[in-house]
Amino acid sequence: MPRTALRICPLCEATCGLTLTIEGTTVTGARGDRDDVFSRGFICPKGAAFGALDGDPDRLRTPLVRRDGRLREASWEEAYEVIAAAVPALVREHGAQSVGVVLGNPNVHTMAGALYPPLLLKALGTRNLFTASTLDQMPKHVSSGLLFGDPFAIPVPDLDRTDFLLLLGANPVESNGSLCTAPDFPGRLKALRARGGTLVVVDPRRTRTAALADRHLAPRPGSDALLLAALAHTLLAEGLATPGTPGEWTEGLGELADALARFTPEAVAPACDLTADEIRSLARELAAAPTAAVYGRIGSCTAEYGTLASWLVDVLNILTGNLDRPGGALFPLSATDRAPRPARPGKGFDLGRWHSRVSGHPEAKGELPTAALAEEIETPGVGRIRALIAIAANPVLSAPDGRRLDAALAGLDFMISVDPYLNETSRHAHVVLPPPPPSQSAHFDFAFNAFAVHNQARYSPPAVPLGEGRMDECEVHARLILAVSGLHGASPDVLDDRVIADTLAREVADPHSPLFGADPQREARALTGSTGPERRLDMMLRLGPYDLTLDELRKRPHGIDLGPLSPRLPGVLKTRTGRIELLPDPIAAELPRLRAALAERPAALVLVGRRHLRSNNSWLHNVPALVGGSNRCTLHVHPQDADRLGLTDGGRARITADGGSLEVPVEITDAVRTGVVSLPHGWGHDRAGSRLSVARAVPGANVNQLLDGSRLDPLSGTAVLNGFPVELAPLP
Ligand SMILES: Nc1nc2c(c(=O)[nH]1)N[C@H]1C(S)=C(S)[C@@H](COP(=O)(O)OP(=O)(O)OC[C@H]3O[C@@H](n4cnc5c(=O)[nH]c(N)nc54)[C@H](O)[C@@H]3O)O[C@H]1N2
Ligand SMILES: Nc1nc2c(c(=O)[nH]1)N[C@H]1C(S)=C(S)[C@@H](COP(=O)(O)OP(=O)(O)OC[C@H]3O[C@@H](n4cnc5c(=O)[nH]c(N)nc54)[C@H](O)[C@@H]3O)O[C@H]1N2
Ligand code: SF4
Ligand SMILES: [Mo]
């Protein structure tokens, strides 16, 4: 008899509740959970393919260990012994910096990825940390760090209540949203318009999101910071800035007008390829809306002025009085955030506390640019990365210049991948540790509840018991930490118990903690949960703002509604002044570079990415139901550009940029504007040694091969993945 089980979908930031159909231990179906307090039955084709992904025959079933140059199946014991023999010895000989860590995107979709990497980094003591953030949202962390003193204090648009949404560089109808967790984002956009609200989309492509909008502006890629600066300038110049309550918490309002003086609509219009009138009327509409939210994502982050654009998004939210008010952009309060403390000045946010060894890139939020990983492995000298631990990461496809990184990885003394697949990156590992399929893992969204448009909490215990020979991913991580820190063989509980003891010791001593004065041992014993990670979750819930427990979450499997977002100023602020620092020094120092951009001659042809609803970065191309049809790696070219360059629909073209060239199939479409071509990322599955039978058959081309890793947003170290110049020629 088939049974059902609930599981939060881990495939994108929307975190939909799924109802899985299970026969024996196999997931045979997935539909939206209509009773889910947040997603209310919404599902997309990826969630519907949960079973196929979960049961993918190419998933690794056992660890792999390299012997005589070849990866062979091995026992867990053997795999950890190899790690315990290799890593501590390497650190003894070459120092802590000789081990690099790469954390990829799915870490924000697993409990293990939230709970253990901080402990791994602490155990290793390395500063060589590279994550997907510097291919993604690091500009937003930096701007929030500078503005609010906390890189995780990211305001999200109040989608369900706003009257006006200005959305830049995001295509939530395909991506289902990012840094704005909202199951059924498309439905929420339609509801916004149905209640009389306005949606304006800024994107060089006419996306499916743009098709839902009242207005679509298609500026030249890379010009968001200029456009946003001109919007802010107009508000200030026309007396339309009304910061309201957030203004009372803001420093630097007076200096802003001067800093933005040069960015008049007339001055930026040619670079944006918009008219000054379009820009001015957008500013006026934004100011006139009863409530409004400005929201920018990948297209404005992974761009040349990514941090400035991210900063300006919130400058606009502040100038229009929309920051921290219902209908505007608010700070979520997740169930595992610490219970709010009284407002007081914080430690602030510093950039560049250390620098990368080879190119001297400043750290941001403790990370170095992933675009600089290859040179840190290749370049001889003290502190060279000799061993790498990659967890849920496929940088050979997701980061610039995969060919160079591929060669660098091949030259490592030792590499570990925690990954369910043998793919373009993990094929270089000496040890591969495979997590179980998602149906066998418990789930709680530590990351995304903090960016959700509605406060809520949901927990999924494993839907299917752990398979024979499988190890839970939390235990995989914990044993890895023990093995690299010379504690191989100890119980993983040691780590969780230590975290619990340390946290409770701090809390009972904090007069503002709900546990102030309590007995820490007693509190530890009171925690429920059958595993270390469950007890840690229970502890975080108890220390959180809603006074929840794991037992309560278990009793309400469709989730607990914790209410709409509400104002959190000034409590969220952790700047040294205890105020919003509107024009922080690093930003002010970046503005001259943006001013210089006004005089630059734009490139004739630039490339942007795109996402497809049935794709997910580099790792869903092995599920037959998700590939094919319109989900193909083709180059979108506008008909006028195709004419000019002699390209034909279905023909092939050679595309060339800093990092190399690719041959790609051409798809002629007016969905991209002129002067812009679009190629999706995550493709290029044609390397030998991977075990991806479906993806290999239709490999596509790796767009990131067009980059050499040198184009970065300087403040955040984020790779410029959108709006870089390319050349294009037809192929016979
Ligand atoms: N040109 C271009 N490049 C881009 C982007 C772009 O828009 N354009 N987008 C960037 C963005 S936003 C991101 S986030 C990055 C993503 O790039 P990465 O962080 O490298 O992530 P993925 O490509 O999704 O690869 C995820 C890896 O995790 C593995 N995995 C899947 N599930 C699990 C699991 O449960 N546990 C573990 N341990 N491993 C798992 C997969 O097999 C795969 O190897 O790509 C970036 N690269
Ligand atoms: N189906 C699917 N869903 C996903 C993913 C996936 O790969 N596939 N990846 C997940 C991840 S890791 C992330 S981070 C999110 C990202 O989610 P989104 O931020 O929504 O990312 P995209 O869909 O790539 O949309 C970015 C848009 O920016 C536009 N753009 C490019 N350059 C510029 C520019 O200079 N200015 C402006 N204004 N627009 C520009 C592009 O044309 C594109 O439409 O999606 C997540 N969800
Ligand atoms: S929208 Fe995202 S979370 Fe929801 S079903 Fe699709 S992939 Fe899963
Ligand atoms: Mo991402």
Q: What are the main properties of this structure?
A:
732 residues, alpha/beta, Phosphorylase Kinase, domain 1, Rossmann fold, Dimethylsulfoxide Reductase, domain 2, 5 domains, seven-stranded mixed sheet, 29 strands, globular, binds ligand MGD, binds molybdenum atom
Q: Could you outline the blueprint of secondary structure elements for this entry?
A:
Elements: E1 3-8, E2 17-23, E3 26-32, H1 45-48, H2 50-54, E4 64-67, E5 70-73, H3 76-94, E6 99-103, H4 111-115, H5 117-124, E7 129-131, H6 138-148, E8 156-157, E9 164-168, H7 172-175, H8 185-194, E10 198-202, H9 208-211, E11 215-217, H10 224-237, H11 244-248, E12 250-251, H12 253-259, H13 265-272, H14 276-288, E13 293-296, H15 298-301, H16 306-319, E14 329-330, H17 373-378, E15 387-391, H18 395-398, H19 402-410, E16 414-418, E17 431-433, E18 454-457, H20 473-484, H21 493-508, H22 520-526, H23 532-543, H24 550-555, E19 560-564, E20 580-581, H25 585-597, E21 606-608, E22 635-637, H26 639-645, E23 652-657, E24 660-668, E25 676-678, H27 693-697, E26 712-713, E27 718-719, E28 724-725, E29 727-731
Parallel strand pairs: 6-7, 6-15, 9-10, 9-13, 10-11, 12-20, 15-16, 16-17, 21-25, 22-24
Antiparallel strand pairs: 1-2, 2-3, 4-5, 4-17, 8-14, 18-19, 21-28, 22-25, 23-24, 23-29, 26-27
The chain binds ligand MGD (2 copies), iron/sulfur cluster (SF4) and molybdenum atom (MO).
